[in-house]
Design goal:
- It contains four helices and 19 strands.
- The protein is an alpha/beta fold.
- The chain has one domain: Hexapeptide repeat proteins (UDP N-Acetylglucosamine Acyltransferase, domain 1, 3 Solenoid).
- The strands form four sheets. The chain has a seven-stranded mixed sheet. A five-stranded parallel sheet has the order 1-4-7-12-15.
- Strand 10 and strand 11 form a beta hairpin.
- It is globular and about 55 Å long.
- The termini are far apart.
Length: about 190
């Protein structure tokens, strides 16, 4: 009986957690904030409802989530998010420190195995995404399940990232491929 109750509670929390009064109030409060303004306030409100955000995170707009980001999204220190960013939260998405995300970037963690000809969409197979420190992801890029983007990499606008991205590279295209290797000299870095 106890095991069934625990399983039912877990399902209830995953299915209806986003409908909690606190979460709904949070979404309403953020809806009232104008896009591009109150970036620190938006991040503070996210922390107050239990999202895992580091210090000095700036949110130009509230990202959209397919589920409850409090369990699956971790954001490091000094990250910047432009508007209309989307997270599929069926597996974890971990962003390191000093990550910059452009407009309408999409993180997809859901995947399915390929099945037989009667129904090609097979069993559900969500896979985590990891974005390491110092990464810049350009506008309208899509990051697919299981991808790791290495430290200091740049993803060009509109790229479809389906494979791991090595550190300190510029990738772009559909599918994304290495365009060039980036300088690792830190002398030109801003503070």
């Amino acid at each position: 009986m106890g095991n069934s109750f625990n399983k039912a509670s877990e399902i209830w929390a995953s299915e209806f957690g986003m409908l909690s009064p606190l979460w709904r109030l949070f979404r309403y409060a953020l809806f009232l904030l104008p896009t591009g303004a109150f970036m620190r306030t938006r991040a503070l409100l996210c922390k107050l409802v239990g999202m895992r955000l580091g210090r000095s995170v700036l949110l130009a707009g509230l990202p959209q989530f397919s589920g409850d980001p409090r369990r699956s999204v971790t954001i490091g220190d000094s990250c910047y998010f432009n508007t209309d960013v989307y997270f599929d939260t069926n597996a974890s998405v971990t962003l390191g420190n000093r990550v910059s995300i452009g407009q309408r970037v999409v993180f997809i963690t859901s995947d399915h195995r390929i099945n037989g000809q009667i129904r090609r969409c097979g069993s559900f197979d969500p896979q985590s995404i990891v974005v390491e420190d110092g990464v810049w992801i350009g506008a309208r890029s899509t990051i697919l399940p299981g991808v790791r983007i290495g430290q200091g990499a740049v993803v060009a606008a509109g790229a479809l990232v389906s494979k791991d991205v090595p550190a300190n590279t510029l990738v772009g295209g559909v599918p994304a491929r290495i365009i060039r290797y980036l300088d690792t000299n830190d002398e030109s870095q801003e503070s």
